[in-house]
Structure formats: structure tokens, C-alpha cells
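[Primary structure, fold]
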Amino acid sequence: MSEKIPVALVTGVGPGAAISRRFALGEYRVAMLARTSERLEALQRELPHAKRYPCDVTDETQLDSVIEAVRRDLGAPKVLVHNAVGGSLGNFMEIDPKVLNSNFQVNTMALLYLARRLAPAMVEAGEGAIVVTGNTSALRGKSRFAGFAPTKAAQRILAESIARELGPKGVHVAYVVIDAVVDLEWTRTMTSKPAGDPFFIQPSAIAEEIWHVVHQDRFARAFNAEVRPFQETW
């Protein structure tokens, strides 16, 4: 494959695949990673510039195999979007401590694994971007988020550490805080709100912001970015 066509690797590709769609629209080749193979197969048929790679991002052996395949099939990723998320609700007395560790593996350790494997080629090229999707749990520990917020806070701090290391080497690292409930089928069922309700943030709008952050001018790059719908109280 031609190295002139940039490659984006996106983890945690959901049913709507908004981030993958935005980069495919922007003429990237997109490596789509998720655990659900069937979902990825359908998306690959729909998106001509995207290719599926079923993967558990907490498994280093799987990651090594997938990244090798991506490089062989598409080329070295210029962009990494770590969108995979492990989450759960419950206060510190209610949660199974194993859940905290499981979420930490997805949210924080997987970022470390991916960055260690993809950053060297970006540094060698003198360009690239690593964007992590986060939320307000990275900034505050609310009562029922004891099994989740600590892992997102650790994720944000790890991303900042990576940013301080890679920024001077030409690689842009950013953390996008999503301060809202994303408009998805299961969140509409949970909240009894219709699609498009201003209570929600739209996946396509999140994807557009990530696209913007990735393509910021190198003389005015942001690490922290926050997005929320216009009616969100903050």
C-alpha cells in the first residue's frame, strides 16, 4: 500500500463507527479494532477505506499480531484514536475490586501498550497524533464511579505524560473530555429520551472534534479538549 495515504487506527469501534467514518471520509485508511467481529465485518463492507481487526486491546499478544497486520495491509498508522472503554457503576463498597482492575486494563494499560508500539514510527516520521477519548470521570470521582473514575484519571495523566515526551518530537497527543451522555441506542433506552434530544452529545460531533484536534496547526496544539451539548450544565 502507498505510504502517501495516511492510516488511522481506531480502538473501541462501536455500532455507529462515527470516528472511523470521519477518517474514512477524510481519505484515511482506517484500521478498526473492536472485540465484536460481526460488527466490524458489516462496517468493512460499508466503508471502502476501512479494514476490520478483531482484537482485545488488553492482550499484548493480540495487539502485536494486529499491529503487524495493519502495517502489512495498510501501512504504519499516522493517527491512533484510543476510544475503547471499560466502565461500570457502583460505589467503593459495592464494586467487585476485579472490575476496577479490568477497567484499568482497557482504559489505561491498553493506551500504554498502543503508544509504545505506534509512537516510535511517528517519531521517526516527525509527525503523527495520539488522541484519547475521555470524560468527566477523568477529572472528578463521583460516588458511584469508584470502579471507573480512577482508571480514567490514570488514563488522562498517562496521556499527558506521553504528550510531554512526544510533543517536542513532532507527535501531537491530546485528551478529549466528553462531558455528556452519547446518543446511542442503549443510552436512549436508559434515559427514555429520543434520538437527537439536546440532552445527548452526537457521535458525529465527537468525531468531528477529534478530526479537528488531530489536524491542529503544530504551532497551536491543545492537549485538553472538552466537548458538551449546548444544554449541558457545567
